[in-house]
Design brief:
Length: about 300
């Protein structure tokens, strides 16, 4: 598919560097990284940002990803790093705790789905089972989940895989545009170069109306990583093969796609009774592992 066409592909070309590891940091990248760091420190010199945030944002790995996200353009990368620093300093998602988001988590509208066949952590989104009113709290719940994906990236893995449930999507239950814009900023700026693939699961035909509204907020690089799955996905079908290639043989259990609803108002395949104890156990293990909150996002 020609990524400039703006169309969503139903097939994909998988490149491990693009979709899993990101480009390695090479010696000839270090000059640009140093230049970006110098510009960044000058830009924020009069701000009172937390030192932990600044240290994490100014690592070689972090600055390299922002440069990559803006094709080496220093000024555009600087704008992204500065904006992310401002956001992290205000929100401190690295300090969020599970107890604050149990209500948000009840329906499985934002959840982790384990690790895919490529070693990428999976993020499952389902806005059709929204259960709260506060957009701020909903975004914080998303940020908390996004932050928790990073420590699950092991070895050379630097990206995650997202699946968005759209079978029950309608223009009536679609998120407000303000929330959509902030979600797009989260994915493309706050977690730059972290998206490996985004799977749009079974969108209805009129989803293209919504897509046309949000497309101006999605950069071409992100669009090139989006795959649409529509139609029969039973074992042996083309869609089944695509999902197996993207996620692995347990894609149904990991994402809830094609699964029944445990509760009428929960996302397919999601059971809070089994999911939440796992979340609490992960948080407990992380708290025992380190008391240094900066370690949680030094690679962001």
């Amino acid at each position: 598919m020609d990524s400039d066409s703006g169309e969503i592909p139903t097939s994909f070309q998988f490149d491990r560097e693009v979709n899993v590891t990101g480009s390695p940091l090479r010696d000839d990248d270090r000059g640009n990284i140093s230049a970006l760091r110098e510009a960044y420190m000058k830009e924020i010199s009069e701000k009172q940002y937390p030192s932990a945030v600044v240290e994490a944002m100014s690592t070689d790995e972090s600055l390299h990803r922002y440069l990559k996200a803006r094709n080496g353009n220093l000024q555009k990368a600087l704008k992204m790093v500065t904006r992310t620093t401002e956001w992290r300093s205000e929100q401190r998602p690295d300090l969020y705790r599970a107890a604050d988001y149990e209500t948000e988590a009840l329906t499985g509208k934002v959840r982790h789905g384990g690790i895919d066949r490529h070693g990428r952590p999976i993020l499952v989104l389902d806005n059709t089972v929204e259960n709260t009113k506060s957009v701020t709290k909903q975004l914080q719940h998303l940020w908390w989940n996004m932050d928790r994906l990073v420590p699950k990236m092991t070895g050379d893995v630097q990206k995650h895989c997202v699946l968005i449930h759209l079978e029950a999507f309608s223009l009536w239950n679609s998120p407000p545009m303000s929330s959509t814009k902030q979600t797009m900023e989260t994915m493309s700026v706050f977690y730059a170069e972290r998206l490996g693939n985004c799977i749009l699961w079974q969108p209805p035909a009129y989803f293209h109306v919504f897509l046309a509204l949000v497309k101006p907020f999605i950069d071409k690089k992100t669009m090139s990583k989006v795959v649409m799955i529509r139609g029969d996905a039973s074992p042996g079908t083309k869609n089944d093969a695509t999902m197996n290639d993207l996620i692995g043989p347990n894609w149904r259990e990991q994402t809830g796609a094609t699964m029944n609803r445990v509760e009428p108002k929960s996302s397919p395949g999601f059971d809070i009774k089994t999911y939440w104890p796992t979340v609490l156990a992960e948080e407990c293990a992380a708290n025992k592992g380190t008391q240094d909150s900066t370690k949680k996002f030094t690679m962001l």
